[in-house]
Design a protein that fits this description.
This protein is mostly helical. The chain has one domain. The protein contains 4 helices and no strands. Helix 1 runs antiparallel to helix 2, helix 2 packs antiparallel against helix 3 and helix 3 packs antiparallel against helix 4. It starts with a helix and ends with a helix.
Amino acid sequence: MDTALQAYLEQGHGADALAASWRHLAPGLGLPPRLLTVMDSLLDAAESAALFDTEACAFSPRELQHHLRDWLDAVRP
């Protein structure tokens, strides 16, 4: 998950690859359903943000990147 997030953050794109990677790995982490729901919401937003070149009115891509990092930090053992 770290590798996929780092690639997403460095390249500024690749939301589809990030989402596919995280969604593939998440079931094996044994996370509570609420954390998986939050993850899906963040990934949905990342995929939507990839469609825009600038800050969307609903969310900021920079804030989204911050939230993705925070989520990953929170679920690390």
